[in-house]
Give the backbone structure.
Amino acid sequence: MPRFLLSEHNENDGAIRGEESHHIAKVHRYKVGDALDVIGSARIFSATITEITPDAVFVKLNKELPSVEPGLEVTLYQGLLKGEKQELIIQKAVELGVKRIVPVVCTRSIVNLDAKKAMERTTRWQRIAQEASKQSGRASVPIVDKPVPLSYALHSDSAELKLMAYEGSRTSLKSILQSSINVRTVSLLIGPEGGFDTREVALAKEANYSIVSLGPRILRAETAPLALLSIVMYELGDMGGL
Ligand code: SAM
């Protein structure tokens, strides 16, 4: 069943406004009395439409549904990639359960965005995250930040476990994850198409990142984050079974 984002709600009813309400009334052609699932305050509810006006849909909240939000909070710092690759990573990372995505401008980033373009892209990325969140049944929409320099990214959070994927590393990811089973916050750092330079690796080490290998093959910049996120969500999150 499609899910829609509440604009505001209390424990008994809510309202959906703007593009979402247009989607309900004009695209899906829902009517008063129809059932649908709605998302608000990181919770999912089954609901019934009580009123449809030209710019809003009003619903009665029936029952709270089980949440599929992971307990593990993962932030993905992703070296800025070209157009559709960045969008693919955002969509897939949201399905895999990421909490926040921060595009990072690295030395070898090919993409160069001025402030205006960065804002436009971030708005588009956030919309992709919202659609992926609804499609995958999540109760909250991960935040996609605007691009930041690596130096900012390295010192912008206090995750219990910080992993930088670097193909020059000989450190086993498996051993690090096996000794991190109780962590609840993780930061992942993946490079752009051109990779990290050795200075960036040294800076990450100073910022308490563990520099890990993802195996003997060179993964594409759009493969590596999804592989690492899947492994972490399997070992430490909720993808490894209940
Ligand atoms: N230096 C790479 C090359 O020789 O082609 C280019 C970087 S790779 C396309 C993009 C990013 O994926 C890297 O910066 C790294 O974060 C990650 N990555 C790819 N393969 C990896 C591996 N085997 N181990 C660890 N990280 C890897």
Q: What stands out?
A: The mean pLDDT is 95. Residues 165-167, 190-191, 193, 195-196, 213-215, 217-221, 224 surround S-adenosylmethionine (CB under 6 Å).
